[in-house]
Amino acid sequence: MFLAILIAAWATASSLGDALLFPSPLDVGRALARGFASGMLPRAIAKSMARLALGYSVSLVLGVSLGCALARVRAVKDTLGLLVLGLQAVPSVCWLPLALLWFGLGETAIQVVVVLGSLLSVAVATESAVHTVPPLLVRAARTMGASGPRLWWRVILPAALPGVLSGARLGWTFAWRSLLAGELLFVSGGIGQVLEFGREFYDMALVLGVMVVIVALGLGSDHLLFGRLERRVRRMWGLDRT
Amino acid sequence: METASTGMEAPLIELAGVSKAWPDARGQAVTALDAADLAVRAGEFVCLCGPSGCGKTTVLNLIAGLESPSGGAVRVRGAAVTGPGPDRTVMFQEAALFPWLTVFRNVEFPLEMAGVPADERRSRVERYLRMVHLWRYRDAQPHALSGGMRQRAAMARALVNDPAILLMDEPFAALDAQTRDVLHNELERIWLETGKTVVFVTHNVREAVRLGDRVVIMGTRPGRVKRDLRVSLARPRAAHDRDVASLAGVVERELKIELEKVIREELDDAWSPAGGGVPRDSHRGLGDGI
Fold first, then answer.
1. Chain A environment of B94 (Cβ under 8 Å)
2. Of A12, B83, B145, B229, which has the maximum CB count within 10 A?
3. In this predicted structure, what is the pLDDT of residue B1?
4. What pLDDT does B282 receive?
5. Which of B92, B110, B143 lies closest to A145 in CB terms?
6. The domain A27-236 belongs to what CATH superfamily?
7. B8 pairs with which residues across the strands?
8. Is A7 helix (H, G, I), strand (E, B) or coil?
9. Residue B128, Cα to own-chain centre: how many angstroms?
């Protein structure tokens, strides 16, 4: 319903303004249909998603490990802790110049930006989640013979999972944004490039169409994937009573 | 009731001149335990009783291997305790079940840690869940259970690996009186069935006398063993037995002296124990809720 009103408002606004700079929903729909029919958009989406999956996995693994180390190893907290907090203030786009100089205009640079963009928020969330694991659970586990890696895998990480998951959700959003920022810059074959392509050819309908795709993908992954996962975990952990 | 004599055979658990201290926020040493001696023979049910701050929980943690002593020696079967071990399990005031596992998987956990094969795990979990009457609830998540049921599950988990020693840290303190009575009966029955050695920490004198072969009274500042009393009442007992009640009265008088010491210190000498006015409702009230 809200969406229908929004589209109607959009149609009215575009009929009043410059059709070239502000195309109507119908034009955008046509541009999208063309993009999908030609296979350009599906290819771009697949390419971006594959990239995101790789970069995000790396940042999850590194972020969770770093978060655990920050929470439990005093020396890491004293040294890297401040650095992590400081670097968190750097928007992921600002890593781009550095990544480009270090790794050249290519795949690696984009991945580095994706990883750096999401790693820190995952790490910070993991750290606080591990901190809030009830010490009693850890003591109980130790008396039952859990120690070392098994204590982490079987007790501390599961106990921290709801918090880690919130961080992972946030990290996903950051990774997604970093990816698009990176892809805008060069011949990357991803969604970001299609956006840039639209700009170059003054194809405003395509630009808006890609924006719609980006919103849809963002909403979809956040609600369908993370929303469901988080609800399920919270229910299983007894955090929500429904 | 007479003062317990140490038996001739070697004790299963032995604390010799044990002290435990740690620095407080200002870096000054806080002594939780000072030159404490305690010997527990195999199969005994020993209750540690005393006001808050007497170090009774510290004694339990030392035996469990969760903490190490600042001085003296803690030995189990003659060997110094260096950490937690499969021969000792602990039950806490809270059940400390893992919320993400079902009751069954919670009870299975120590067996997994010990590397017991899956089919044997299943039969052992079933046996102990039936023992605490929770088999029907094996697939429930802990948060769906009542407090008493959670403690039953914790009891099954503590017993499932068949440890020689069961360490209990006020396991029933957070339960209502009726549930606690039921669990006292169950614990006594299971103890009679399995012949475990139990060290049971409580501030509730009635509970100590109800359950223990011995009631060890600990004093405070510094924490040490004050009296060691043998309870030779017939089993099974009940909390409302007249003998239990009268013996609890005797023990309570012993404890009151220690308690008044604590209150005087905490209230800066402003409190006078007029008419032996132990505040029954305080969190360290003796024998409350029975």
1. 136
2. B229
3. 46
4. 46
5. B110
6. MetI-like (1.10.3720.10)
7. none
8. helix
9. 20
Write down the ipTM of this complex. Answer: 0.80
Domains and their CATH numbers in chain B: 7-87+165-268 (3.40.50.300), 97-162 (no CATH)
Using CB atoms, which residue from B94, B114, B141 is nearest to A145? B114
E strands, chain B, in order? 13-23, 29-40, 45-49, 71-76, 79-80, 88-91, 165-169, 197-202, 214-219, 224-230
> What does the mean pLDDT of chain B come to?
84
Whether residue A133 is predicted with pLDDT greater than 90 in this model: the reply is yes
Least confident of B72-86, B156-170, B249-263: B249-263
- Find, in chain B, the residue whose alpha carbon is nearest to that of A238: B143
Q: Is residue B64 less than 8 Å (CB to CB) from chain A? A: yes
Give whole-number Cα distances, A164 to A11, A161, B15, B163, in Å.
42, 5, 42, 35
**Distance to chain A for B50, nearest Cα, Å:** 22
Per-residue pLDDT tens for A87-109? 888 888 888 888 888 888 888 88
How much of chain A, in percent, has pLDDT values that exceed 70? 99
The reply to whether A140 touches chain B by the CB within 8 Å rule is yes
CB distance from B87 to chain A under 8 Å? no
Distance from the Cα of B202 to chain A's closest Cα (Å) equals 18
Q: For an interface test with A, which of B100, B139, B159 has the most A Cβ atoms less than 10 Å from its Cβ? A: B100
Q: So what's the pLDDT on residue B92?
A: 93
Q: Which pLDDT does position B277 carry in this prediction?
A: 47
pLDDT for the residue A156: 95
Task: Check CB contact under 8 Å for B88 and A143.
Answer: yes
Main-chain phi, psi angles of B142, to 5 degrees: -55, -35
User: pTM of the entire structure?
Assistant: 0.81
Q: Is the predicted pLDDT of residue A79 greater than 90, yes or no? A: no
Q: If you measure CA to CA, which chain A residue comes closest to B161? A: A144
- Answer whether A142 touches B (CB < 8 Å): yes
* In contact, A129 and A160? CB cutoff 8 Å: yes
**Chain A residues closer than 8 Å to B110 by CB:** 144-145
Separation between Cα atoms, residue B97 and residue B106, nearest integer Å: 6
**What is the predicted pLDDT for the residue at B74?**
93
**Coil/strand/helix, residue B47:** strand
